[in-house]
Specification:
heterodimer; A: 2 domains; B: mainly alpha; Rna Polymerase Sigma Factor, Chain: A; Arc Repressor Mutant, subunit A; 2 domains; 0% strand
Chain lengths: 272, 173
């Protein structure tokens, strides 16, 4: 605490209530849609940073393990801080400790990302489904990365001056040949996005309309896994549990190595 | 750190902090629609710099540094991209009065978001750090590599402007 802190005028009541409301911002946690969103982002990150097959497989295995560690005991550091809104002091050391425990206990179940089966020559960006027979377009992820010029006023002692960040322009879908594959993927993407946003606002019928439209138009589409995940969520949300379960079972058969499998299992736990 | 442990550590950091990172990005002005892409970029950077983390220090301020840098880059890019565009939905909505039926809490939160939206990026960052994250003036000085006194004057300016903007919207009912 610095003496100058006392010289700062207190904020008005209005500003105080506004900033404390923001501080207490509720996370839309716990919903299946949110879980799926987080899985999807994580999957994209892993794919972007994954250098090759071995890494990707290890990443996926590590993911399964960490999840096991985080969920095994509600009191592990990871679980506790996930639940806590307070600033977390979780350290890598703690995390590594958890990881070591998890490995020792053999709880890692090794979810393998489907993509591992097809070694990417270039690190690829996030089209979540990689099972399609269609040759996957090489999305330019890392070539989009630039090293931004470091503004001199923003040095962060513990962070490096220039972070290589993949810029977040919509990924340019550069198919090796021609544009029809691009156009198809874009159409697929827009159908899937429509389904997802319908689900997010709770409009199950519109969501299922979009997933059926996708299934009809792209029976072997590249975003089939994602479509199925969304449909399973929608059906569950609608209370059509038997249908959801059947569809989840079919998903497990069709995409046994899908990176969405943990998400599906969370929505519809597999029956023994 | 072996690869596997590194990945596990990353996974645990992600699970425990992705909500925080996304809230931070929103506070720093990343739109809802772009939050997913920007979150991706933040965690890619985090992954690549995992070794730089000093376990003696709290994790979230470290993550904030990444969120800040990526949001800043994103902002430059977005401005570039949108130069010729009409105002976004968000901007147009900002002129509308807040609906009365909103819950008090939600209303206050939207007010805060609008107040933040009216600030330039530096002031916005200062306000988020000081008022929302409860960081000290010294941390703000370190973040921007500026003298402590300068940090205090930035805090004053940011607060004054924030106050002015939210008064516009937040007249008591």
């Amino acid at each position: 605490m610095n003496a100058q802190d006392e010289e700062l005028e207190p904020l008005s009541d209005l500003a105080t209530s506004a900033s404390s409301a923001e501080r207490a911002r509720a996370v839309r946690g716990g919903s299946a849609a949110r879980d799926a969103e987080l899985e999807r982002i994580l999957g994209r990150v892993l794919v972007t940073v994954g250098a090759g097959v071995a890494t990707t497989a290890a990443l996926a295995a590590a993911g399964g393990t960490a999840k096991a560690a985080a969920t095994a005991g509600g009191t592990t550091a990871a679980g506790a801080s996930a639940a806590s809104a307070a600033t977390s002091a979780l350290t890598v050391k703690v995390v590594v400790g958890i990881a070591a425990l998890a490995f020792a206990a053999g709880t890692g179940t090794g979810v393998v990302i489907q993509r591992a089966a097809t070694p990417p020559a270039v690190p690829i960006a996030p089209a979540p489904s990689a099972t399609a027979p269609v040759p996957e377009p090489t999305l330019i992820a890392n070539s989009r990365s630039i090293t931004p010029t470091a503004p001199s006023n923003s040095a962060i002692p513990t962070a490096p001056p220039a972070l290589p960040t993949a810029l977040s322009v919509p990924p340019p879908t550069a198919a090796p040949s021609g544009t029809s594959a691009d156009a198809d993927l874009a159409t697929e993407r827009s159908l899937i996005d429509r389904a997802r946003s319908a689900l997010a606002r709770g409009d199950v019928p519109a969501c299922l309309d979009a997933t059926s439209a996708h299934a009809k138009r792209f029976p072997a589409g590249r975003l089939g896994e994602e479509r199925e995940l969304i449909a399973i969520q929608a059906l569950t949300k609608d209370g059509r549990l038997a249908v959801a379960r059947a569809r989840a079972n079919r998903f497990r058969k069709t995409y046994p190595k899908s990176m969405f499998l943990p998400a599906v299992d969370r929505i519809v736990p597999p029956q023994e | 750190m072996s690869d596997a442990l590194r990945l596990t550590a990353f996974r645990a950091i992600y699970d425990a902090n992705v909500d925080y990172v996304q809230a931070t990005l929103r506070r720093l002005g990343v739109s809802v629609a772009e939050t997913e892409d920007v979150t991706h970029d933040v965690f890619v950077a985090v992954f690549r710099h995992l070794e730089d983390y000093d376990p003696a220090r709290p994790l979230r301020p470290w993550l904030f540094g990444f969120a800040y840098r990526v949001a800043l880059d994103h902002r430059r890019l977005a401005r570039h991209r949108n130069e010729a565009n009409a105002p976004t939905d968000q901007e147009m909505k900002d002129d509308a009065p807040l609906p009365d039926e909103l819950l008090e809490e939600e209303r206050a939160r939207i007010l805060c978001q609008r107040g933040l939206d009216a600030l330039d990026f530096d002031k916005r960052t200062v306000l988020v750090m000081f008022e929302i994250e409860g960081r000290s003036a010294q941390e703000i000085a370190d973040h921007f590599s500026i003298p402590l006194n300068t940090a205090y004057s930035r805090i004053r300016l940011a607060r004054a402007e924030f106050e002015r903007h939210i008064r516009k919207y937040g007249a008591p009912r």
